[in-house]
Amino acid sequence: MTTTGIRRANSEPGWLRYLLLTLALGFLFFFLALPLLAVFVEALAAGWPAYRDALSDPEARSAIGLTLLVALCVLPGNILFGIAAAWAIAKFDFRGKSLLITLIDLPFAVSPVVVGLVFLLIFGAQGIFGPWLAAHEIKIVFALPAIIIVTMFITFPFVARELIPLMQAQGKDEEEAAISLGASGWQMFRRVTLPNIKWGLLYGVILANARAMGEFGAVSVVSGHIRGETNTLPLHVEILYNEYNAVGAFAAASVLALLALVTLAAKSIVEWRIRRETQMLATSLTPERP
Amino acid sequence: MWIRFANRFRRLSAALTCAFLALTASAQSNLLNVSYDVARDFYKDYNPLFQKHWKAQTGETIELRQSHAGSSKQVRAVADGLEADVVTMNQASDVDFLAEKGLVARDYAKRFPTNASPYTSTMVFIVRQGNPKALKDWPDVVKPGVQVILPHPKNTGNGRYTYLAAWGYALKQPGGSERTAQDFVSRLLKNAPLFAAGGRDATTTFMQRKIGDVLISFESEAELIAREFGKGEFEVVYPSWSILTEFPVAIVDKVVDKKGTRKQAQAYLDFLWSPAGQENAAQNYLRPRDTALLKKYAQQFPPIRTFTVDDTFGGWARAFPTHFKDGGTFDQIYQLK
Amino acid sequence: MPSTRSHPARVLPGFSLSLGCALVYLSLLVLLPLSGLGFKASHLSFYEFWEMATGERALASYRITFGASLLAALINAVFGLIVAWVLVRYSFPGKRLIDALVDLPFALPTAVAGITLATLYSSNGWIGRYAESFGVKVAFTPLGIVVALTFIGLPFVVRTLQPVIEDIEPEVEEAAASLGASRLQTFVRVVFPGLFPALLTGFTLAFSRSIGEYGSVIFIAGNMPLISEITPLLIISKLEQYDVVGATALAVVMLLISFALLLAVNTLQWWAANRHHGNTRPSTGGKP
Q1: pLDDT over threshold 90, residue A5
Q2: ipTM tops the 0.90 cut
Q3: Do B83 and A126 touch (CB under 8 A)?
Q4: Which of A36, A37, A235, B64 is deepest in the core (most CB within 10 A)?
């Protein structure tokens, strides 16, 4: 596909490429690489054994497990919602569309602390449903359900917000063609829509996942901070730090950073495999141009 | 789509049931101690002591669960349904709030000895090695050109105690009045280049980022600072007067009555005043109430003249609204500017 | 296209299903809880509410919060576009790793981000040291808030732009180039309009995320009343006084302002997307 001629037409002059590259890398260096490096420097400040000890602590383990469980519970719902919302918004015209998009954005703008507070106002002992829940022995706040619910709220817009601009840019011609050729709705979705949006979807899932694992403010309000039970990894980090255990805190923080890198690595592998498949398909169909 | 949704729902509910079971199965003999941030080291040592004591006395194995976070955040959680059997806080106003909500007895301070506070601490100055600015007492700290690091006086327990310590000092001076005290405190706040997010953040700002000439903090935290940053990095200065900080404990009646754990909760808190409990406090750099023990550890607890929130400010119930509520003296200082 | 709106002959299936699902989920998870907020705030009389929402400290905090968020979102829009472009179009060693780094701000607990940034940008930190020698103080000033918010919002612009840039068909640029357009003209006239909706989305998201951010900002802001006090800090301050009603009142004000701003941006974007869609429609149709 990419021959030198096309490449020249499609790319910037050399000096501009270097300028852009420098700007991008410089920006990322100051805002991302240095903070990440600082986290690892702090985590390893007392040497590797201290780092390992900090992570093999049972409370740290339970926090890691809880964090993964929460992310796992949160993602499926948000993926379904994201696809449904993006489909309705990007492919159809209806009144109040901007309003709907704005409502989807809203969870971003609500301060995480307020998110936690909101759910306490509803499910807490002094909240609207509090007495009823207490009478029926149902535990929501200061237990797993509330942690999952607030994380859902926090990560709720990601998939939808990632898909909407992408689907809008793609238009609906391909789907319409599929339908007019007699495909069922499900066939159209699986064969046409899904392949088109898979990158956006993946980015959305990765973002939601990272945010779900890293969320601190809202979870902190509804978790109850019970050690070994309702402490997620970010809460664990904060508590260790406040207890003057910087190595433990930054070690736990580095795990969160690593978890994000692992999801990205998974994404890269999927991407690479798909690219290889399509390339093989392309080369078998069209002979390489000189 | 619906099948996937149903599957997801089934998985979610399975996970939730597991969590439920985990929480209810162990409901027999366990206590949840909801506590403030830096109390972890104390209770990490104290809990095994009590478990051993309780086992020897009753033969019952008791499970002790801990929750730590900012003090007033913790009591809000208890009011909102966090099922704490006991609360162990660093400020009476926090327990007062629970008393107001009917979760804790109104006379909780009288249910245990020594104002229901098993140990105390005080606010001290932490200065750079060699004390280069020769800061000896409160007036040195409010001099122009001295930078003071303290946590947010309105939003954090540490900050409030620092604020009241300076206020109380000014009151105790000859000719001291509410007016001179407010003036004194506003000079102190003028010397603060920033308000740290919490006690720990103030320490990091002072020790690691090397900002400021003096950090005002709990005496007990000096030891934690030494552990993290090394002893040779700073000196502790005791001012002529400081505030006695109390750490009230209470049984959450509503919860223990429901769970049937009153006996255990009572014993758990009583044990704080036992020789073993008091010694544990001293080892964690908290001043024990036991005077003999205080003498034994005299080296680490030099004598200091202190006043309390009760005797100088009429208790937290009065001090809090006067100084830290919206429109209180802290806000007034910032409106005068 | 206005014509599609006046003839709602829908070829594609699943409109009611998808919209229905989305609305149910949205109502249960977002609208219902947020209405609890309004309910709580309604315990205040309008006068009390107004008094609380327009006090000197509150007004100063809105200025700081919204100003710093806007600035941070603008920085992210410019650099995010460059980063996304570079990550999609260029190849260089370590690209995968750098791509992976972009999500870091989400994965790190905000408190860790705040502490780390404050350490890096304070006067003896790795970066602050050099900034100081140019006479710029970052940590514990309003500028520190902008730095923290830039960090927090960074992934939004990059990640919304990446799939869209990946989706640009080279043929469009080729056509423009073969018709004699310079690279700049191609970018401004052909590529940029296609990216604009996504860029605006990223900007909006980064902006709205910044408005509510608390955890990282308090560590680097300095928190001085009237100078570097953000609105979420005032909310916390109310909660520390056990004043839940006051806290919800401030939260409602923030929510209303954010909602109005987001609605304005989204309407603008929807309008821009529609216009753009009308212009470039033939090119998407011409795909083999």
Answers
A1: no
A2: no
A3: no
A4: A235
